Amino acid sequence: MLSSNGTQATIEFFLNLIKAQSPAIAPSIFMTDRNQAQVNAIRSAFPECQRIFYCWWHVLRAIRTHFNTKEFPDLWSLIQDWIRTKDDNLFNTWWVQIQGDTKVPTSVAEYIDREWLPHKEMWSAMSRQNRTIFEEGDTNMLLEA
Question: Cα separation of 8 and 30, whole Å?
Fold first, then answer.
């Protein structure tokens, strides 16, 4: 997104301005860092856009703040693979593994369950299939850089 610290009203104003200046453009995908103001503004300005994705870099950064990746390297590796799998069965198997592994801090599994699973369509690779080359991408960091 172009504004990471704006309010929903500011972001929505900006998106509507772009929409008014370029009415023929109808974005099919947006990517954000999980900023709810951005998500709400996108849904308001472009209700026909059904795909709003969270940037994988930001997803992983948020998750890794809940445990020490050097202390739990196997968990960290699994989580990185887990968000990128396009296989529904593998996704579910790995989630059961994360939840059931006694070496995984309970707080990590609870955090993922509470904060991420309800929105898996926005970050899981399972939702990012069958995209054109123009729709490919897994991070908004290129814009932020």
Answer: 15
Distance CA 132, CA 140 (A): 17
* 50-93 pLDDT tens trace: 899 999 999 999 999 999 999 999 999 999 999 999 999 999 99
Q: How many CA atoms lie within 13 A of 128 on its CB side?
A: 24
Largest CA distance in the chain: 55
Q: Would 133 be classed as within a structural domain?
A: no
Nearest-angstrom CA–CA distance, 124 and 83: 5
- Are residues 63 and 91 both part of a single domain? yes
Q: Which two tokens stand for residue 54?
A: 């969270």
pTM score of the predicted model: 0.82
Provide the number of structural domains found in the chain: 2
Question: Facing residues of 31 across strands?
Answer: 53
Can you tell me the distance from the alpha carbon of 15 to that of 45, in angstroms, rounded to the nearest whole number?
6
Q: Tell me: do 86 and 33 sit in the same domain.
A: no
Distances (CA, A) of 90 to 22, 29, 97: 41, 25, 10
What is the residue range of 79's domain?
A: 56-122
